[in-house]
Amino acid sequence: MRRIMLVVAAVLLLAVMAVPVAAQGTIVDVAASNPDFSTLVAAVQAADPAILETLSGEGPFTVFAPTNEAFNNLLTSLNLTADDLLANTELLTTVLLYHVVAGEFGSEAVVGLDGQIVPTLLEDANIGVSIVDGTVVLNDTVEVIQTDIAASNGIIHVINDVLLPQVVIEQLGLQAEATEEPTEEIVPGVSIRVAHFSPDTPNVDVYVNGEAAITDLAFGSVTDFITLPAGSYEIAVAPAGTSIEEAAIGPATFDLPEGTFITVAAVGSLEAGTLTAAIFTRDFSELPADTARVVVFHAIEDAPAVDILANGSPLISELAFPGSFTDASGNPNDGAFEIDVPAGTYDLAVVPSGATEPVVIDLPGTELVAGTYYLVAATGTLEAPAPVVIAVDAETAAALREANLNVNAMMEPEATEEAMMPMGTIVDIAAAEPTFSTLVAAVQAADPAILEALSGEGPLTVFAPTDDAFAALLEELGLTAEELLGNTELLTTVLLYHVVDGAVLAEDVIALDGQEVATLQGESVSIAVVDGGVMLNGSVNVTQTDIVATNGVIHVIDAVLLPPSVVEALGQ
Q: Of all residues in the chain, what percent are helix, strand and coil, respectively (each to 5)?
């Protein structure tokens, strides 16, 4: 239980960064240059030509590469010669595809897959990953003996035996005990996430069955869904760094029925003594074509019932804070309302019920993508609202549905890039974070192409200055915010200087120590690692990393980056 729940706070895997790194050629080139892979290279050349083309292509791929000795062991066990093996094109192709994984997974990422299964390029065939005495073991028997051999289109890890997929084991009539995946009991699951929507409550720890499962959860944060066996769980919420004895909510027992998707939200006020847990469910069933599903949650305690307007017309009416009124049957409301809407771009506004003004929360240009499931939460206070927008794509929703059928069969969130559940696009995340209000205003005031790019497919990496960073820049330049936002050309230049092509995680940024990275503006940013922290252009510190979005990643910085051409023009 503890291992599964701690997954919630883990950093999720992304595709490898798009910044070029030194490598020795393609995967095929690297293998061909190593005499210990001569049988593997011969097998690739003898197999379906598509394999050679794939492993020489763009990638990225991760290849688990058997040595010559590994192939010799296989030939001995099958009583075959090398010529016999190389002449069987169909068998070779099947076996080789089973050694290739889409995406680049370095050794640290592979270690993070302990206890999970990873899909290969061979259709419907997975590799089991486990850590035994510090060694990565595949399918319970095959050891990784060397890691992180870099190629221009991926990475190679060396293994001491040939991996055989189940279809080959059955075809050859071999005993499957050593390599087949164990049959597990089917255990119905429930997917659950936790949200911190109490504006005056400090960071909290969440306890499940007496153990701290989520730590240091900040206001406005929502964990990813995790899937657990359905049943009853004791949940408590306490100030971060204290103990369950200091719990402000619970411990209380919650029944989590199978097949459901539950959000447990901390709402209310700690100071007023109204802090409580509000629970609402989501519907992650498959969506009709060209449709998005939106659940709106009212978490502002001092706000009246509200209406949600879409392009000026009511979308949802009389949405109230949890428990603040009851329906005709006497049941208290849970503060949530769910609706399916046509995909498209909407100007969303939260207003008092029955009115059009004042606008409590304004979300213009909100893009609702087909097949996506959104949570739009009105949080904060009436005086200082803080909207939170989270998106779950169709593929992730399908994985959640499958996990709810059998929790043992689920692939945990770190297993693949596709299993990630970020909180929306880069723009969505920035708009939901109050400390980025100036950045969001700048994006909206700059060339519209920037907003389009940061809301598009990506992937992109954004070094995001906080409001304090912009305030310091304005003071330094002797400008007002209005003057800055009125200079479209300057804004566009500066903002593009904060964006890098590709999704570059913190560990990859650190690997660029001493190098320069090209930005979308055209000029480069220098990267240095100083006392364990990342510094850009010799003075700008990265203060928070790896805020994952559906179209990239955000790293927070403590000052605004100015390209050299702008520094020169301003006479700085």
A: 25, 35, 40
